[in-house]
Amino acid sequence: MSDFKARFPINIRFSDFDSLGHVNNAVYLTYLEEARVKYFETVIEHHKEIDWWENGIILANITIDFRKPIDGYFNYYISIRCSRIGTKSFDFTYLITHEENNVVEINAEAKSVMVCFDYENQKTVPVYEDWIGKMEKFEGRKLRV
Tens digits of per-residue pLDDT, 77-113? Predict the structure, then answer.
């Protein structure tokens, strides 16, 4: 877990729970999306000035390994890191944990592949150079393969 530089509390809502008393598996996708947004807020400066139609990203793939159900509201966190940067895509790795009384339990691990995409011209584009520099600086290591 120490190799994750970005970690955020999860805001678990009453509506996230299903009839079995735990957070429904589909809701995890929302938690991952919220983590990506917070990562961009933290790492990519001036993210609100980005023209997402011209310099956008698209989710190409996502996998989630569920380890333990989320069955409460408090002390849940999501950690996210950029783990690889390719020519037109980059990967995020996630860890969802419950942390209480110095005990850390893993609830889920996930990975997503993000593709840089020009929505105006409907085509993939190379990963933006300024993003690469900012992500590598934040992560403290070379990410480009």
Answer: 999 999 999 999 999 999 999 999 999 999 999 999 9
**Mean of the pLDDT values across residues 50-55?**
72
Residue 81 near residue 5, CB atoms below 8 Å: yes
Token duo for residue 139:
């992560």
Q: Is residue 81 part of a domain?
A: yes
C-alpha atoms less than 13 angstroms from C-alpha of 107 in its C-beta half-sphere: 21
On whether residue 35 sits in a domain, the answer given is yes
Domain assignment of residue 24, yes or no: yes
Domain that holds residue 120: 6-139
Instruction: Enumerate residues 6+ apart whose C-beta is below 8 A from 35.
Output: 6, 8, 78, 80, 92, 94
Total residue count of the chain as it appears in this document: 145
Average pLDDT rounded to a whole number, residues 23-51: 88
* Inside any domain, residue 144: no
Strand partners, 6: 80
- DSSP bridge partners of 9: 77
How many domains does the structure of the chain reveal? 1
Q: What angle do CA 132, 137, 141 make, to 5 degrees?
A: 90
